[in-house]
Amino acid sequence: MQSDDEHKGLIEAALFMSSEPLTIEQLSKITGVNSLGYVKGKLLELRNEYQNRGIHVAETPEGWLFRVDRKHTDKVASLTPYADIPEGQKRTLALIAYKEPIAQSEIIKIQGNKSYSYIKALIRRGLVKSERHKRTRMLSLTQEFERYFGADKNRIREQMIEKFGKISSNAGAEKQGIRPETHETESLL
Rounded to a whole number, what is the largest CA-CA distance in the chain? Predict the structure, then answer.
């Protein structure tokens, strides 16, 4: 039988090794502990132990994970340029960051039907929120987006405008040589 410290160490190792957030249920299976409350208690202990350090234990809508402390993000972000976000989701996120709030229907017109799955994934990650507006949904960025990228969303938008210019419509984007389906817009993310 494993001790409390061994359980906590196993949870810590799982969070470190996983490229995706882990749910309490997943961590329960990994540790072999049936009590979800016990697992959550160990997560909270780890979160307390990692306070005021370079990384911390964070809870997101998808689960628990290690995250770099915001004050260090700028200095270490180049070591892993958001490798956990697939390319299609990055392009969708760049469009939302650039034109927020933006109608979901406009993103679908630009990127096609595959964007529905990208948007759902970004909402699950807590980077984007969706609110019903007439016959479509309006998409905007969340505070989790700012935490994840280590910068204010307005600052990111300003950098995009500096690099690409102001775009008022999809046709305007094409005239300026910016095609949202290319990788150009994601270079700032």
Answer: 66
Q: Give the class (CATH, top level) of 87-188.
A: mainly alpha
CATH topology for 4-77 is Arc Repressor Mutant, subunit A (1.10.10)
Burial of 103 (0-12, 13-18, 19+ CB in 10 A): middle
How far is residue 111's CA from residue 181's CA, in Å, rounded to a whole number? 6
The whole-model pTM stands at 0.53
pLDDT tens digits along 118-176: 999 999 888 999 999 989 899 999 988 887 777 788 888 888 777 777 655 444 344 33
What residues contact residue 6 under an 8 Å CB cut-off, 6+ apart? none
Residue 90 token pair: 């990055």
Close Cβ partners of 76 (under 8 Å, ≥ 6 residues apart): 68
> Is residue 122 a contact partner of residue 154, using CB atoms and an 8 Å limit?
no
Query: Which regions of 34-171 does DSSP assign to beta strands (E)?
Result: 55-60, 63-68, 102-103, 128-133, 136-141
The reply to whether 4-77 and 87-188 are identical in fold is: yes
The number of C-alpha atoms within 13 Å of 188 and in the hemisphere containing its C-beta is 23
For residue 134 the two structure tokens come to: 């007439």
User: Can you tell me the distance from the alpha carbon of 13 to that of 27, in angstroms, rounded to the nearest whole number?
Assistant: 11
